[in-house]
Amino acid sequence: MGVQFRRLSRVDRDLEVPRGAAQARAAAFSRAEDDRAVVDDFVHGPLVPNPEESLGELRELALSAGAEIAGEFIQRRDRPDPATLIGKGKLLEIKGALASSGADLVLVDHELSPSQQRNMESELHARVIDRTQLILDIFARHARSREGQLQVELAQLEYLLPRLTGRGVEMSQLGGGIGARGPGETKLETDRRKIFRRIRHIKGQVEEVRRVRAQQRRRRESVPLPTVALVGYTNAGKSTLFNTLTRAGVMASSKMFATLDPTIRSVTLPSKRKVLLSDTVGFIRNLPTTLVTAFRATLEEVQKAALLLHVSDLTSPLAHEQQKQVEKVLKELEVKATPQIRVMNKLDLATDELRRSLVNSATTVYISAMQRLGLEELLQAIDARLEIDALRPLRIRVPQSEGKLLAQIEARAHILKRSYRDSAVQMEVHAPESLARTLDAYAVKPKTRRI
User: Fold this and answer.
1) Residue 346 and residue 318 share a domain
2) I want to staple 368 with a disulfide (CB 3.0 to 4.6 A). Which of 4, 348, 353, 395 is the partner?
């Protein structure tokens, strides 16, 4: 257990504030109000070897939700208290911090049961938000498309359903502040029947989204363009890389979960093959199962991808742990067998000594998406790893009258040699299999030697 002191918020800039008070400001639909919060990190067992790392991630989540951190608490216990998660002594400390700072919100880096949440609120006389609800609040901020909003609302409803007892207007759509961004109609939490009806309705709409997405995927697959999906820990730089490769203009931000809605754009590889690049929502440690389930329609792009680009922050001290968390989610999505390239991003922030020691391989590429370093090597690695529509060497002879076919060869194949004779073009090419099947009719058979 540890308590640290530091200056963090504008309000307490000239004061030494115990880790326990945090000021959070969040807009709630049509109005904004100030929340003051205590941030508490509960460490249980061997799951989090370094509580500072866990607390740092909670801090980033709180900032992404609009909080202005003023302080934090840490507690270590062999086992959680079944009634309040944390011990009575720590509750009294937090209660004192709430009273001295005027805070009315507590953020806990742990999933709380409904009874634990109610008991803590009753003891502290303040709203208590666990890690899952904090992530849901961030998702509610960043969902822009109708699909993303549906998926967030479904996750919110499934989270709120067992927590209705004792809730009031703060869970309606008119509630304000972090964790109170309600998912739908007013007083939804007071009527379980309405919630169940709404969940069924949303699930039907999400199924319609999946159906439409499947139709779009089938249309894409009729023109064999393989999909390459960007996956990785939140804030690893996926959207910046996506924008750099495709010039798509997707929002890129240092805040967690800046990208929520999937985006797909085409990219031309050095072999002239075209692929579809898909940007996806970032993963995080202990990603709530409700979110994995709710976002299955979005994550289908990952499941159907021919190749995964696992983007990691090279400079993060938690890079190895973050990679393990991403692998865990990929296993849940049953895509561990999909070919991967590990893309180590933010090379421009690495020390000169570290940069000199890094060597690219067939499965690991070091880049800086922001500074456009190593992108050619990355595209070449994608070219080499893609198994769908693979390149095939051909010697062909095409009449010059076949202008349309010659234009296709120019656009889609890598031409090694070219010569003109007898109103025809003779070429040695590396062509994708989808084009090579057409070019087989123009293949030049090797001459047989007479003995």
Assistant:
1) yes
2) 348
Do both 431 and 371 map to the same domain?
no
Q: Could you tell me if 250 and 373 lie in one domain?
A: yes
CA dihedral angle for residue 322, residue 294, residue 169, residue 42, rounded to 10 degrees = -30
| Same domain assignment for residues 424 and 326 | no
The residue among 86, 103, 137 that closes a domain is 137
The verdict on 17 and 122 lying in the same domain is: yes
Domain with 361, as residue range(s), is 223-385
Q: What's the token pair of residue 430?
A: 């590396």
pLDDT tens per residue across all 451 residues of the chain:
232 222 223 223 222 323 332 232 222 222 233 444 556 665 554 444 467 777 878 888 888 787 777 668 888 888 888 998 988 888 888 888 888 887 778 888 888 888 898 899 889 888 888 888 888 888 777 777 777 788 888 888 888 887 765 454 444 444 556 665 555 544 544 567 888 888 889 888 888 877 887 787 677 666 667 889 999 888 888 888 998 998 865 555 555 555 556 678 889 888 888 888 988 777 777 766 666 665 665 677 788 888 999 999 998 888 888 888 888 888 888 888 899 999 999 999 988 888 889 999 989 999 999 999 999 999 999 988 887 777 889 999 999 999 999 999 988 888 999 999 889 999 999 888 888 889 999 998 776 555 5
Nearest Cα neighbor of 311 from 353, 341, 334 is: 341
- The one-letter amino acid at 327: E
**In contact, 240 and 369? CB cutoff 8 Å:** yes
Domain count along the chain: 4
AA letter at 219: R
